[in-house]
Amino acid sequence: MRFLVLTAAGGVTDAVSDRARALVDGDVPNRLSDDAVEIAFSGDLPAGVLIGEPIDVNVVSAQNRRKRLLIADMDSTMIPVECIDELADFAGVKSHVEEITERSMRGELNFEASIIERVALLRGLPEPALEQCYAERISLNPGAKTLVQTMNKMGAMTALVSGGFRFFTGRVAVEAGFQMNQANELLFDNGKLSGKVGMPILGEQAKLVTLNALCEAGGYTPADVLAVGDGANDRSMVQAAGLGVAYRAKQALAHVADVRLNHSDLTALLALQGIGEGEYA
Questions:
Q1: Catalytic positions, written as ranges
Q2: Which CATH code for domain 1-63?
């Protein structure tokens, strides 16, 4: 048995869920929240179910559905911006850095080389500018805190892993409730960014290594893992996870993910596991 999961930040109506049920010849829809419905079904999924509707339509297995480890990217996943682009705005080089970031997230550039190039452009930015950037530009995406704290409540391990910077992941992890965080280290010289990043640079492979290490430490298998990201450097961890999610993602990630979310907030990751709002933290 499988579940057809319908999610949308704008809500999923009964009429839409009933139409989906008829298309897959499924069971009576089970409403998880105003924004999510699941329908148990067997057999094949017809092509183009609810195509054209502003709703995410995904299929998940009933087996091992609730995950024990959440591993999540930060920039453009848990938060709506790329921190390095916002820092670049303070340094007066946003358009240049933003272009490099976009190409890197699409998988067109080597991630490690691109981060070295981008950080070099931030040289001389004073540390208070980073504090101002966090205070003025960084916020959690809708549903992020509910997702993380509900997973914590259910006994899962929650990890924030980023190719960005620890200055930001440490703060975002606390705000959202992640149990651990990992990111790159910006280096300072006399209170200003030196234009260099600590080595080794943590990129795509480092995220996969962290996933495997957390599985070994916690006694999990990859099937127990829910991984979510948006860019090319999330591919390896998303492919390795039992449930790999592309959240409003670049095509480089979307085409290898199990699930694609373009219309939903992050509570959709709970709905994919069959967790309704009555169980939210």
A1: 73, 75
A2: 3.30.70
